[in-house]
């Protein structure tokens, strides 16, 4: 607020000076922390590089070794391979919080400016702004294309073409920044936007002529359709990323969804026909331009655009068709993983089987029964264990003899019933075969190949084996 006297202004200045001295201390501490942060970042970068180098040496050494003749060494090799996979994932998570060098394209456009975003929320906000940017520009392009179809104004056409050039140029820069900050966007889609930038530039300098107006209406309709499909993709990806982020299964900088779940299939199955129609339209554009290139006075722009549209059609179609089986395989792998976990553990409280809470064997599969009961029952050992639980009689108790006889008879009856129940449960189980299957499931020789899908299966089986051991311990406690 304003002051009416000089004394009030001086008093306000003195108060402000005291606050400034406190601010100086805070700023000094901030600069010291910033220098410490820079030093720690450099140490982390060097440490991660050293870890990756040593891991590569270990992998090369393991490939040269032969463990086929020694089962013990083969098992140790598999465990070490699993640890190496886990360590690579840990290093990848560390790199997401450390500045990364810019790519060649960003160095040419922006120089050596650091574009790394260290805060997770800021990263997600930047990615969200990227998605909104695409949505807004596509809606504007849809409106301009509609206007150009209804009218025939050269200036409006040039505005539309210039908008496309600016849009794709900006898109490539933003995607490069997202890539530096951990986005897993596929290489083809980045190349697609570079090609689209060149295509839009050729359209911008395409002069008026017979071939231009022969292709103009078809191109404007194509832009309207592509803008509509981009809106559908935005709504689909926003919903998928929101769900995956809530489940903790999505990276903050993911642009296109890599994971696959059952609730995603409906949306993807709805969008795929629209995508394929758009790709076929690109092929139709290439064919139309190819035919126009044989007309008299056809400019060089026509044949160039035909080639670019054909490249876009081939790249988009092949990439999409390759992603669909991959997503289905990831879904089946995810389902298979938890199916295998159900083999070793039964989590439902009402159906969990133990010696304290036995259940009819008809409601359990042989594999589940084998995991629930440990069939180690030497008769002598069982007899010793059951007799040691009885209290020792005392001579000065007149009725203790009758009580001991009754307790022993009841215990023998309970023991007999328990053993009969175990025999009924386990009579159809070949425990050696079950153990062999479990060991075969765990001892997978494909770990040495380093394939990503096989590595994921190995991690799932390792996790299942650990759960099996913990469940066996719980069963022993119940006994």
TrEMBL record:
What top-level branch of life does the organism fall under?
Eukaryota
The reply to whether Zinc-finger figures as a keyword in the UniProt entry is: no
What keywords sit in the KW lines? Answer: Coiled coil, Membrane, Transmembrane, Transmembrane helix
Q: Which residues cross the membrane?
A: 135-153, 159-177, 189-207, 219-236, 263-281, 301-324
| Coiled-coil region | 13-43
Topology in the lipid bilayer is annotated as:
Multi-pass membrane protein
Q: Which GO terms describe its cellular component?
A: membrane
Keyword Ribonucleoprotein belongs to the record: no
Check the record and name the Pfam families matching this protein. Answer: TMEM120A-B
Q: Where in the cell is it found?
A: Membrane
Q: Which InterPro entries match?
A: TMEM120A/B
Concerning its family, UniProt says: Belongs to the TMEM120 family.
**Name of the protein in question:** Transmembrane protein 120-like protein
Task: Tell me the organism.
Answer: Cherax quadricarinatus
